[in-house]
Amino acid sequence: MKLFEAGEQAVLEALAGLSDCNQFLPERIALERKALGDAYQGSGAVWHAEAESGPSSPNLEPLARLAEELAERLRERLAAGASAGSDALLLYEGLIRYLLYSRYESDFFDLIRDGEAGRPATGKVDAYRKHARDVEHFLHIPGIRIPVEVDAAHLFAWGYQIRRAFHHTFRRIYGGSMPAARLRTAVWQSIFTHDAQRYGRGLYQRLGDVPTLIVGESGTGKELVARAIGLSRYVPFEAERQCFAADPSRLFFPVNVSALSPTLVESELFGHRRGAFTGAAEDRTGWFETCTDLGTVFLDEIGELPPEIQVKLLRVLQSRSFQRVGEVAERRFGGKIVAATNRNLADEMEAGRFRHDFYYRLSGDVVHTPTLREQLAESPGELRGLVLIIARRVAGPDEAERLSAEVVDWVEAHLGHEHGWKGNVRELEQCVRNVMIRGEYHPIQAATRSRSGAGGLVEAIEAGDLSADDLLRHYCTLVYARAGSYEEAARRLGLDRRTVKAKIDEGLLEQLRSDD
Q1: Which of 204, 305, 349, 435 would bridge 234 by S-S if both were Cys, CB 3.0 to 4.6 A apart?
Q2: Alpha-carbon Rg of the chain, whole angstroms?
């Protein structure tokens, strides 16, 4: 008896491919079309959360029905003694993984919503028992040996991870432009690599050892990328207890290193012993100790770290060990490190401010976040959708449509398509708020941006082009560019380092650095 009838193998290959492909690559569309044939419904080249509507591809339900029908037919034939080689059985196993994901996708999504609502996602998962029976039915057929190890708990955990990865990538990284699509593709690869089968065979246990470095201008969504990666890590399912080993929503620990002095950075990351420094009144547990093996520590603004802290972090990356400040006892870090910076690290290394060995340890996986300029250059129509998303958050759903129309009209009438959006999405958010409150938005004056350096500042002051706020912003940026760190700039200016950081004009800073 043959396992496949005419045309079935091509459909099987497509459905098995969908279980392993990157959800945000064009490959997914080609596989859906191959599986459904004439029943395929076009849904656009870029899969993203529409600003006006919900996600869903119209092909998901037909694909799920097709997988159900084909899986039952093939299972019956295998049980009846149909001959099948290892390649055919591997395809069949891929089909069953796709089927299982489709069947339990809503259960996985309920767990995600529980986590986001603050309800613990570590209790007993009732759906697992039925899932385990499905695995037994389809993959443990008497007389048939699937070439790969099949474990119901692992398949359940993997399915939950895929659903979380899709949720955090699709729902949190907006945009229908190709740069945004490429970013979602890169995030998916950071989570599962480019080879999902290798990942599922065992790499899921090792990928936490590989740090991820996110680079891009300020305001391009680097923390959203970090959260998508950190919140989508593999969490084992414990079959005996019928629950997950941890709540994924509570395994992400962000630290903005630029907002802390070197001593406090050490204390935040490594912890400290009572009396280790002035003000250390009691023992403190740092984030590397708080973070479990399944967790992720996110180091934002990693380019601001002084070299002495870089050395200590390098040791964590190399040996996975650290010491609390004021202690000699070794402690182990088993989690994942994700870091981000808006600095050009090549320039920082050339200037001696960023260690080469530290960079190469960090850059095992690098994600580049696109600027708003790049997105709008490829897809000018994206402005309307992005403004609507921001307007919903700023003004609420009832006013979002009207406000977004006002903002887009203002931008088109007064800024035009050539506006550079130096502050990226943060500037766009500021534009929405300004239009909502004052009915207009005026970016920082072009005169201040075209005059770089101390001479340019003097010219702008003499010409009377600067407001008081512009003057402080320009001068803080100039001093910071020369000082090389927020702490040193704050010392020279006599200001708090957080005030200095808040006043930095990223567009002017970029120009100052390019002029040097």
Answers
A1: 204
A2: 26
Hey, how many other C-beta atoms are within 10 angstroms of the C-beta on 201?
12
Tell me the domain boundaries of the chain: 8-205, 224-370, 373-442, 447-515
Let me know if 446 is exposed, middle or buried by CB neighbors in 10 A (0-12, 13-18, 19+).
exposed
| H helix or E strand, kind and range, residue 253 | strand 252-256
- Asked if 233 contacts 296 with a C-beta cutoff of 8 angstroms, the reply is yes
Partnered with residue 366 across adjacent β-strands are 213
CB atoms within 10 A of CB 256: 16
Q: How many residues does the chain have?
A: 516
> 173 with 370: CB under 8 angstroms?
no
Residue burial 126-159, b: 16+ Cβ < 10 Å; e: rest: ebbeebbebbeebbebeeeebeeebebbbbbbbb
* b/e sequence 40-64, b meaning 16+ C-beta within 10 Å: beeeeebbbbebeeeeebebeebbb
- H or E element that contains 284: none
Q: Which residue in 281, 283, 356 sits closest to 324, CA to CA?
A: 283
State the Cα–Cα distance between residues 143 and 205, nearest whole angstrom: 31
Burial of residue 118 (number of CB atoms within 10 Å: 0-12, 13-18, 19+): exposed
Angle at 331 between CA 328 and CA 333, to 5 degrees: 145
User: In the numeric block, which tokens belong to residue 364?
Assistant: 């095992």
Cβ neighbours of residue 385 closer than 8 Å, sequence gap 6 or more = 50, 51, 52, 174, 175, 176
Strand order in the sheet with 212-215: 252-256, 296-300, 336-341, 212-215, 365-368
Topology of the domain comprising 224-370 = Rossmann fold (3.40.50)
Residues 33-88: tens digit of each pLDDT: 999 999 998 866 666 665 444 456 789 999 999 999 999 999 999 999 998 999 99
Predicted TM-score (pTM) of the model is 0.84
What pLDDT digit, counting tens, does each position of 96-154 carry? 999 999 999 999 999 999 999 888 877 899 999 999 999 999 999 999 999 988 899 99
